[in-house]
Amino acid sequence: MINLTDINFRYPKGDFHLSIPDLSVTAGEKVGVIGPSGSGKTTLLNLVAGILTPGRGSITVDDLEVSSQNDSTRRDFRITSIGFIFQDFGLLDYLDVKDNILHPYRITRALKLNSAIRNRADLLAEQMGITDKLRRHPADLSHGERQRVAICRALLPDPKLILADEATGNLDPKNKVHILELLFESVDHHNATLLAVTHDQELLGRFDRVVDFQNWLTD
């Protein structure tokens, strides 16, 4: 599903340098990524998603060499094949929950909004326990409820890959476990692959494998 080879990445400004000799994630695998703050874990997700491109090396996702594609191709691939759960959720305050879930379908021609997709959004909301929140706005939701909305939006296109950036961050222990279980159940139900950045050491045992990002951090 994911293959990174000989990756070297630097931001245009600053001294940050990320080097990943090799990383592979098989289809259906749930992989947790740990490491110190500022080590580049979010950068890894952005590279896999094609939001960033490496200065050197190859990134292949679902048989597409993402790193060699143009901006338009990477964007369409990301929207149709990758569900990205952002650390700050990325919800739009002026939209209600239902429209936040459907939002990816309103901003690109790569996805087609129809009655089946609307029904799928309702089903995902039911699975996440937020059916009664569909006409509320993000400001009216708890942190955990906003997280569930973000998960629904990420899963809506039925992506083959889920990228999660601190999906359980800032939640109390009970809700952390509950949200992670909901995410894992959804990934299993939709036969997806999960690559998740986390600081929650107590949750690591629930992943199939854990990658320590410290091994790729250089001065």
In short:
This protein has 219 residues and is α/β, with parallel strands linked by helices. The chain is built from 6 helices and 9 strands, in the order E-E-E-H-E-E-H-E-H-H-H-E-H-E-E. It has one domain (2-216): P-loop containing nucleotide triphosphate hydrolases (Rossmann fold, 3-Layer(aba) Sandwich), CATH 3.40.50.300.
List the helices and strands and how they pair.
Blueprint: E1 2-10, E2 17-25, E3 30-34, H1 41-49, E4 56-61, E5 64-65, H2 71-81, E6 82-85, H3 97-102, H4 115-127, H5 143-155, E7 161-165, H6 173-189, E8 193-197, E9 209-212
Parallel strand pairs: 3-8, 3-9, 6-7, 7-8
Antiparallel strand pairs: 1-2, 1-4, 4-5
Helix pairs in contact: 5-6
Characterise this structure.
The protein has 219 residues and is an alpha/beta fold. The chain has one domain (2-216): P-loop containing nucleotide triphosphate hydrolases (Rossmann fold, 3-Layer(aba) Sandwich), CATH 3.40.50. 32% of the residues lie in helices and 22% in strands. The chain is built from 6 helices and 9 strands, in the order E-E-E-H-E-E-H-E-H-H-H-E-H-E-E. The chain has helices at 41-49, 71-81, 97-102, 115-127, 143-155, 173-189, and strands at residues 2-10, 17-25, 30-34, 56-61, 64-65, 82-85, 161-165, 193-197, 209-212. The strands form 2 sheets. The protein has a 5-stranded parallel beta sheet with strand order 6-7-8-3-9, sandwiched between helices. Strand 7, helix 6 and strand 8 form a beta-alpha-beta unit. Helix 5 runs parallel beside helix 6 (173-189). It is globular, with a radius of gyration of 17 Å.
